[in-house]
């Protein structure tokens, strides 16, 4: 039972991992496992100790927030670096200069340009044959 360590020391109380030490009231109590943080009416966060006596819950929350924020920032930077790396890998060096490897949008645009070029050549050939017919008809060839 954790209450037997009340008015003793924090170290004695926290030998049992199920106990929570409240430094302001010098009480040792069962840790409220149904809640992540002990409620304020039980013990203030800055006075509550669990696991070790030299870290209070308030400092623990701040430290975990800083570590979590740092990890999120690092994850974001890594994602940006990976995206930049993928874009730069599309440029594969070969021959005289860098060869740009096309992605799906570039390939689609190239196909459309090729179709337009072929249609334009067909129209030119058709116009040339019409002009040749007209020249033959009027004897200007």
Provide a brief overview of the structure:
By secondary structure, the protein is α+β, with helices and mostly antiparallel strands. It has 3 helices and 6 strands. Helices cover 51% and strands 16% of the residues.
Topology:
Blueprint (H helix, E strand, L loop, with lengths): L9 H4 L5 E4 L4 E4 L17 E3 L1 E5 H33 L1 E3 L4 E3 L3 H35 L3
Antiparallel strand pairs: 1-2, 1-3, 3-4, 5-6
Keywords:
two-stranded antiparallel ribbon; PSI; transmembrane; about 50% helix; alpha+beta; about 140 residues; transmembrane helix; signal
Number of discrete helical segments? 3
The portion of residues forming beta strands comes to 15-25%
What structural class results from the helix and strand content? alpha+beta
Helicity, as a percent range: 40-55%
Order of helices and strands: HEEEEHEEH
Poorly predicted residue ranges: none
Cα-atom radius of gyration:
39 Å
- The overall average pLDDT, rounded, is 86
The N- and C-terminal alpha carbons lie at a distance of 116 Å
Strand tally is 6
Largest sheet: number of strands, sense, barrel closure? 4 strands, antiparallel
* Backbone shape: rod-shaped
Strand order of the largest sheet: 2-1-3-4
Structure description:
The chain is of the alpha+beta class. It has a domain of 53 residues. It contains 3 helices and 6 strands, in the order αββββαββα. The strands form 2 sheets. It has a 4-stranded antiparallel sheet. Strand 5 and strand 6 form a beta hairpin. The chain is rod-shaped, with a radius of gyration of 39 Å. The relative contact order is 0.06. The mean pLDDT is 86.
